[in-house]
Structures are given as C-alpha cells and as structure tokens.
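Here we describe the complex-level prediction in full. Unlike the single-chain runs in Section 2.1, the two entities below were treated as one system.
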Amino acid sequence: MSISFINALSVSVTVVLIKTSHSGNIGAVARAMKNMGLCKLRLVEPKNFPSDEATRRSSGAENILNSAEVFGSMDEAINDCHFVVGASARSRSLAWPLFNPRECATKVLSLIASQSALVVNGTEQLAEPVRKVALVFGQEASGLTNEELQRCNYHVNIPANPEYASLNLAMAVQVIAYELRMAALLEEESDLLSGTECAGAEEWEGELASVGEVEGLLQHTEATAIKLGFLNPAKPGMLMPRLRRLYQRAALDKMEVNILRGILKATLNQIGK
Amino acid sequence: MSISFINALSVSVTVVLIKTSHSGNIGAVARAMKNMGLCKLRLVEPKNFPSDEATRRSSGAENILNSAEVFGSMDEAINDCHFVVGASARSRSLAWPLFNPRECATKVLSLIASQSALVVNGTEQLAEPVRKVALVFGQEASGLTNEELQRCNYHVNIPANPEYASLNLAMAVQVIAYELRMAALLEEESDLLSGTECAGAEEWEGELASVGEVEGLLQHTEATAIKLGFLNPAKPGMLMPRLRRLYQRAALDKMEVNILRGILKATLNQIGK
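The structure predicted for the assembly as a whole is:
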C-alpha cells in the first residue's frame, strides 16, 4: 500500500473561479489544470459559459469544462470543502494567514496526505476524499473582494514584480497548480530527487567513464600536445590542470572518452607519417 | 554592497521564442515576463510581429514588446549568450542534461550570482552582465527541434501530466520565470549563497565563453576531424552532436576554448606540413 499524492491532488483539489468575465480564461484555466493533473472545476456566476471561446482555449481539456459545476454564489461553491485558499494580489487591511504558492502547496499536501482514504490499493483507486481543498480565484479585473477573502482559511499570493503585479487569471492558476504538482512529485520521489543536484545524470544513456579512463585520456592528451609542440614539458604551465578540471567537471561518459581518444590517435598517426 | 538577485535576473536572462505562430502568445509571454521581473525578449522568425493581438494580450507590458529584438535564426539570437537552456517537452534519443524548472532556476542563479558585475551600489545600477542566459522556447505545436535542442547547454522540462503534457507557450514561460523569481527572492531572503548546491556558485576565475566562441571551437574541431580522416562528412554519425553536448554541458570558459583551439591549430599545422 502506498499513497499517490498525484492522485490525491486530482480528487481532493477543486479550482473555483468567481464571476469570470472572459470565457477564454475559463478555457485556459481548464488547460492549465489538466496539464498539472487537476480536474475539478467550479464556476460561480460566470459571465458566459459554456462558450466556444472557452472550448477553443482549453485545447483538448474540454472534459474539464464539460464536468465543470456552475454555482450561484461562492458560499454554495465551497460549501462541501474543508479547506479554502483564496488567491490574493495584495495584502489587505485585515491581515490574513498568507502563503506564497510553495508554502500553499506544502500546506495542501500535508492536509490531504493525512487522509486515510488516500491510501491506494493495488488498483490505484481512491475513495471520495475526506478533505476537499478549494482554490478560489476572483474576477480578472478586481480579484477577490474582502468579503470573499475572509471566507478563506488562508490566502495565497504570487510574489510578482511589485510594479506590475497582476497576473492573468489562468497564469495564476498555472503557477499555483504547478507548485501543487511539484510538491506531490517531490513527496513521491523524495528519495530519487534529493540526489539530483546536477539533474539528469542518472538517466544518462551512456555509462560514466571511470577515473582510470579519464586519466588515460589526460595522458593521451598530454603526449599529443607535447608531440604537437603545443605543450613544453619543461614549462608546462597550467595547460594540463585546466584540461583536467574541464574533463572532470563534465563527468565524461565512456563514449566521449573514446571519441576524444580517437581524435588523438588519428592525430598521432598523421604526425607519425 | 549587496547583490540584488532580482536585478541580476532582469539584466542577465533573455527569453528567446522561436518561430512563434500565434502573436497573442508573444503578448502573453511579455506579460508573464514582466510579472516575474524579466524584460529581455528575442524573437526568431515570428510569424506576425509586431501585431495588435500581441499588444492586446500583453496587457500593459508593451515596453517588453517594443524593445524585443527580432532575429533570422536561433544561432544569431543566442550568439552573445553564455548559457542556453531549451524547453523540452519530452526526452530525446540523445539524452541531454535535463532540469525541472526548480533545478533550472538554481543553476541559473548560481551562474549569475558569481558575476562580480552584479554587486550593486547605492544606485542599484548593474553593469552589462558578464554571463547572459538564454531561455529558449520552440514553436507552439512542435516545440524545439532536435537540432535546436542540441544548441542548448541544458534542457528544462515542466513535469506535467503525462497524459496531457503540452503547456501553452506563455504558461511554460510563466512557470520557468516564476521559479527564477522564487529562487532569487529566496536567495535574497536567506542571504545564504552557500546554500546553492549546483556548480558555478564557486568563484570561477575565468569568463565564460559565449555561444559564438563555443560554436567556433566546434567548427574548428569538425574541420580538424575531417582533415584527420576521423570524421567522414558523408557519414557523420553522432560524433559532432556528442562533442557539442559535452562542450555545452561543461559550460566552457574562454581560456578552455583557447586551449582546445590551440591544440587544433597545432594539429592542422602539423598535418599541413
């Protein structure tokens, strides 16, 4: 038995859009949600929905639009939720617990991870979540009202350029959903990911060269440079230390060592002629 | 004297869009950039630019569109840059160093943080950056081609839902720029450069080679390999892509390029005899 945090997000998290003016934004939100593995969308008094523009901008995420639920008020839309986070562009007169998107993701993950219903059996099925999280976004031009913000447990703020702080609605959903997905992936793969300081090395298709193989390349290089008259053994300077640092920094694979030695060999053959 | 990482990002990072089809996306990218404090935009063969649609979607970020530079090829657009990150939707046949957006941000920050030119005086002015970072995004429908991806030091991949992995272009820029801004803000808050794990944070004494300089080295290498009979131009195979990947991964400094070209020059001189 293991916990799938990605599945947990998709069943536990609902995006709630309040009084969205531009139906294209609803479509773009659906696409951003689906990209990040979210699927539950609720709309409060959308100006125009469903609409062709929303469908067009959703670019293949119509299933999220088709299953979107429409409500007459924020109260109804969040009624069955257990934890409500409201997107806030600015700090308000009445201070509220405020997260950045990363802190928000950590908080949401910790909430849904503690649900026993999220334990996944062999079929990767999840029960209806015990804890439903709502992420609430206000109207494009004005954001959530003070009254709406006060219906939230926490606020989340994207730390944007203070001189130009207003993100497009779907962009804000994208960033917050991205942080949720990253948090879930990091939880699932914490063992793996904690090791990837210089990423990708573990998925390298070629075997890394051994110290001895790199050493062989360096000696071959030195001999060639001397033969070429490029390196004076009496006054070697920093040439070889610099090449050593370069090749070690790059963490050469065996094929790369073979290529470089192949060139050196061809060079020595030509010079010998 | 202190280092402003937010300022460092804005002067050091350039977003490069290749052959963008929908001009609205260019506007949305400009808005996302400005929201995250980036300002340098380069366009390679945009289908339609400038355009009213781009201006409309930029929602007040016209200054970024107005100062955008248009180029005829990716080569020209990245020629003066020192470190190139390409957005990649999927893993390729020839594995390349791959980051997620958070790792990418750490890497970029560590690269630009070690520039002495970033020390800010009282007027918060910054010199022309010594290290220019390009973030390259391909055409909407197809992304970067394999050839374009091979021009990059590293690839960055947004860990999206595998069943629906293609983000809108501006959304991808938003996420990657958001991670850069978060990394910069966290650095400024913590004031702990020692916390950066990835290479580059240490003071590199040499100036990084530009893309053009590395390109010169690669052409010199190719010509030499052909002259040596090591590379058959009629059947080049993967020799040059592998050497390109190696040199780009290592992020060569100018001195290293000079050493390697010195060896090649000496080789060609000897063969010529």
